[in-house]
Amino acid sequence: MKPALRVAVWATGTVGRHAVAGVDAHPDLDLCGVWTSTPAKAGRDAGELAGLGRPLGVLASTDRAEVLATRPDAIVHAAMTDDRPFEAVEDLIGFLADGVNVLSSGPVLLQYPHGILPPEMIARIDEAGAAGGASLHVNGIDPGFANDVLPLVLTSVSQRIDQVRVLEIADYSTYVQPFVMSELFGFGQALDAEVPLWAPGVLSLAWGSVVRQLAAGLGVTLDEPLRETVERRPARRDVATASVPIAAGTTAAVRFTVEGLVDGEPRIVLEHVTRTAPDQEPDWPVPAAGDGCYRVVITGEPHLECELVHRGEHGDHNDSGMIMTAQRLVNAVPAVVAAPPGLVTALDLPLVTGRGLVAS
Fold first, then answer.
1. Residues 217, 220, 224, 225, CA torsion sign
2. Domain identity same for 259 and 163
């Protein structure tokens, strides 16, 4: 019987606290350390921070060296990276150079950075991995499983593929992430506000990794550049969300696409439909059930549609989205530790399952 892999969880926020719980529940993993950016959390037990109602005997620390001194085989990195993507890349390279495998929820462009990041930056990741004998895998639910493994598996029953479209359709009103809601998506701001995410080319940096990875998995060469569309619509009334107040007339719903074209035809499309109240914009796509879903539509022969509806046992779909993000990383730890050094994408991994998690 192989010894359990030692795992440190990096951050204890919306994803990190679920990662702590996930590592604790996994029979092949042993939680050895927890890093936190919040001084008030330092010295507190990881079980308390994860809301487990019982101690785990592992105390959180703000000291990088102290956490690495626990000799983790892998780090499940769940720290916020949306506000510092390139600094976060340097953090991850540092872990690889120190000989620690990393599974991270961001920066999302590292899900499949080819064609997005400069080749020399990707080479630095691979070189650090080779020097430390460690691998890096960035994934989650979106970008991640809902729009890499799931659609690619579905294409295995296709005879002809005219288009692959992957969608997130969700009400973000209970999403607790003020920076993302206000600064990235611009909710609560004027419809014509200069929001970074809608600047030309930014969507292709973020969700372009989804389109490019699907193209690679299907052996397709895309036209350059990727094509982006954005539509913002106002609130018809004041809306209260968990992260930001939205006044009537300000941005309350957004629909965007990142399209990969082949000879001018959109063949691979990433689409997001994001509301801040369930009754907004009924003319846009809606979930078949619940307040949020991931949908895959493969147009061709045969026509295929798959709807992934999720909800938390003790929360809503935003809570379960964080759980799925954490668990995609936690459950992939053994496969990533066993992978060759350097950057590892979903195309490089074997089938990852919930092995060992069936209730007894």
1. negative
2. yes
